[in-house]
Amino acid sequence: MSMEELFHPMQEPMILAAAISIVVGAVVIVAGLTFFKKWGYFYKNWLSTVDHKKIGIMYIAVALLMLFRGGIDALLMRAQTAVPDNGLLDAQHYNEIFTTHGLLMILFMAMPFVIGLMNIVIPLQIGARDVAFPRLNAVSFWLFAAGAGLLNLSFIIGGSPDAGWTAYFPLASTEFSPTVGNNYYSLALQLSGIGTLMTGVNFITTIIKMRAPGMKLMKMPMFTWSILITNVIIVFAFPVLTVALALMMFDRQFGTKFFAMQDGGMDMLWANLFWVWGHPEVYIVILPAFGIFSEIIATFARKNLYGYKSMVMSMVVISLLSFLVWAHHFYTMGHGVMVNSVFSITTMAIAVPTGVKIFNWLLTMRNGKIQFTTPMLYALGFIPIFTIGGVTGVMLAMASADYQYHNTMFLVAHFHYVLIPGTVFGVLAGYHYWWPKMFGFRLNEKLGKTAFWFIAISFNVTFFPLFILGLDGYARRMYTYSESTGYGPLNMLSFVGALGLAVGFALIVYNIYYSWKHMPRNEKADVWDGRTLEWATHSPVPEYNFAVVPTVTRLDEFWFAKKEGRDITAGTIEKIHMPNNTGTPFWMSGFFFLAAFFAVFNLWIPAIISMLGVFGFMIHRSFEKDHGRYISVEEVMATEKSLRGDK
Amino acid sequence: MKKKLSLMFVTLGALALLAGCEPLTVFNPKGPNAETLSNTIILSIITMAFILLVVYVLLAFMLTKYRASKASADYEPPHEEGSHLLEITWTVIPIIIVAFLAVVTVRTTSTVEAQPAGYDDKEPLVIYASSSNWKWHFSYPEEGVETVNYVNIPVDRPIEFKLYSFGPITSFWIPQLAGQKYAMSDMLTTIHLAADEVGSFMGRNSNFNGRGFAEMEFEAQSMTQKDFDEWVADVKAKEAPLTEEKFDELLKAEHVGRQSFSSTHLEFRPAPMEHGKNMDMGGMDHGDMSEEDMNNEHSGH
Q1: Tens digit of each residue's pLDDT (9 = 90 or more) over A84-108
Q2: What number is the ipTM of this complex?
Q3: Number of CB pairs < 8 Å for A and B?
Q4: Residue A465's closest CA among B227, B155, B12, B198?
């Protein structure tokens, strides 16, 4: 591969500018760390940490970064299509941008944001001191980070994937997609996917085995329930992706023909495998949001969650149905009335448990005392907007009608109406809600609310016109269209909405800076008058989470204890066993990253050498004796005193 | 909050109306199958509007009645476990709605997947539509003519499009006449349609297939049987037959204008098997097109 080919994306001025900004950003961070002599601090406290709270914060930091990467892609797409026959981007770059937009937003924004929040909150909410496998948790994060880094690198070296985030074969084969873009796709997703699978195992174990004494399954907070179910879906769905990506890599790089057009290959096999993972993936990012909304609505309506049992049941039903609907992504493949009818019915059936949840949330507020805080605004904005996403989902589920919606902007509008009010509002609500728990100060409410209104209104201005465009026959993924189609005005409106969304998200980031400068510190532990255990410990949370693990007798134990004037964290302090920090996950994932990077370019010798590095760390680990360490009673008492004394 | 929200939806509704001055393509059907789909969509929109209304009224009610600013400072919300009656209600009613839509779906899917009703007595005209790079080939085996990037059909006669692809998956779509279906390299799929009136309709590939995707359109023109017969006779008389060399050249081209030939490529490059019948055949046979040809064909990317 020639140098020119290697850096071909750089020939586009806009891409060059973006690439330069990535490089400059990296240089500034490295120079800053060096100048302020923070490398030691950074390595000791972050790169080698196994603390679930810090890992969670790193997940969210990466998610926010990727939100902006993916957001710039989105702005470019909307700018390109704002007017007919626009020449801002050519077809190839448009194709790369919508592909990376989808990949980044789903796999490197939504997923890490959800996983970040579950890392921070779950051990606190179940009264545990860390996750079941803290070191594995660090491996999960660093593998995810390696995958995210690799996919972003494709932007600079070699070209990004350009066959859509679905990467359908034969389009994604070397025959029709000869750049290394789709090698990056299979390897970057593989790395982060393996990390996610480990997260699944880790959190199922944590929730099953490490709950506070007395917390029976049906006494768990709803967010914990949603995360348990989510991780069960992860453990069943991600192996399918792992296999599909391996086959893709074999096809592209070793000349196998699993998805080829000749020699018995089946192109639609990829589509089936992709969506057998891909549809449950939708629920992996939406169920945690349902959990977050349940917590927030109960907290700010100042009432317990309505219909707890049916809320749990409906999530279990959704998780089962999520594996039975994948073929609705290609009704138009021509698999007959019978198959299409079965998948239509299973898909529409999901509306039933989802509706149960919506009505339970509404009824939670009845007789309540609703406070309109920023997290609550996201939860309340979610209901009307997400319901549009839900009902259009039912419309799309009807196989016959789907023949007219498939591959159009109607579909694009639908899934943004599900994923933005669902997942994005969900994680933003959770982020504002648990921020004081992470850092000990609140985010500014005024800025938070302004950002919410910008996002909620602009979202509808951006995506509602796409429903209309879709019904007017506007196919998705077209880099341009002619003026005679009449698609111009609504596309322009959509672009204006996208600018509003950009303002909203910029305000969210500005709010971090503003609040860090101006908001009062030493916020009390229970800022929102919460109901669940995470509010029982200090903010920010000490390393060991709870000096004394609380005992639980019922749902919302903390809430009732407050009413009765009991302190559930009272008890005798004993020495606390904690895991040691370790740099191994970071370095091992570094070698994984190198191996994958070389593999992208078929440089097998350096790739194999890098993999030997990975195995070296694994072997080292199997002989390592690390039994963790104890925090002495004196140290715990001193920490508790200083945290309490500040109040 | 509620006011702003309702204002937002009123604005959006008005926009939808403005855009609807001229009927949207999908709601402007010119054939029985597209009409079935248009009716199905309108029915589902009405059903869904009802559900939205229920949710919005309930939400507006909760948000106006139970806000903290309206409650007295010492008001303590009660503990409520839930209500079996209510929960059964909002489980059963959606099940009934879904069951109703399921019946509609199965019936309409069967309708559009068969020869259009009212045309049962007429022999369908079979047209093979195949895609390569960013163009469409239309072969009329009965008439012995072939076109590129335009297709003429007679009105009031059932048409069967047999779809396949010489490359990535494409989706054949003439929204005013019928819903879309995939064209794939290893199996044949079928679209049934008929045109009720004479006219020109936009047809396109709606499934992303690379760089030239946006321009992959064709014109579908419906005409009287007499005009159609004249056109066929005209092509047969004036155009050259499609040779294998010429066809290979065509396959390699990225975009081309309209072309017509007085013979079809099906004679030397038969279409793949019907969907479901090829599972043990080892996929599509690309005839004598060697892998080298395939690579050359796309080396220009």
Answers
A1: 999 899 999 999 999 999 999 999 9
A2: 0.92
A3: 307
A4: B12
